[in-house]
């Protein structure tokens, strides 16, 4: 079950990264609320997962899902450039 929590936490990291971008520096209410709620849920699920998954493993998986997911969301939904830099 810990792995499921960890994967969900990683996907929530993608959600909060995307909604933070949409919040325009926390000037838009709905995306700002989504950001804060998704952040809290992501950290909570990560903490639960880390009860039985080692810190290094959990953190690498969590940030990896978030980083790769945010990259894909940026390219697909925000039309961000796909360049080596």
Attribute tags:
85 residues; 0% strand; mainly alpha
How would you describe this structure to a colleague?
- This protein is mostly helical and 85 residues long.
- It is 76% helix and 0% strand.
- The chain is built from three helices and no strands.
- It is flat and about 35 Å long.
- It starts with a helix and ends in an 8-residue tail after the last helix.
How large is the share of residues in beta strands?
Answer: under 5%
Structural class by helix and strand composition: mainly alpha
Gross geometry? flat
Average pLDDT: 96
Rg over C-alpha atoms, rounded to the nearest angstrom: 14 Å
The level of helicity is over 70%
Let me know the number of strands.
0
**Biggest sheet, in brief?**
none
Order of helices and strands: HHH
CA-CA gap between termini? 37 Å
Low-confidence stretches: none
**How large is the count of helical segments?**
3
SSE blueprint and pairings:
Blueprint: H1 2-22, H2 29-49, H3 55-77
Helix pairs in contact: 1-2, 1-3
Concise overview:
The protein is an all-alpha fold. It has three helices and no strands.
């Amino acid at each position: 079950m810990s792995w499921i929590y960890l994967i969900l936490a990683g996907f929530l990291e993608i959600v909060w990264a995307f909604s933070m971008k949409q919040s325009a520096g926390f000037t838009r209410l709905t995306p700002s609320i989504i950001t804060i709620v998704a952040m809290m849920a992501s950290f909570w699920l990560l903490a639960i997962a880390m009860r039985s998954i080692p810190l290094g493993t959990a953190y690498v998986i969590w940030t990896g899902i978030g980083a790769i997911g945010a990259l894909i969301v940026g390219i697909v939904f925000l039309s961000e450039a796909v360049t080596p830099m």
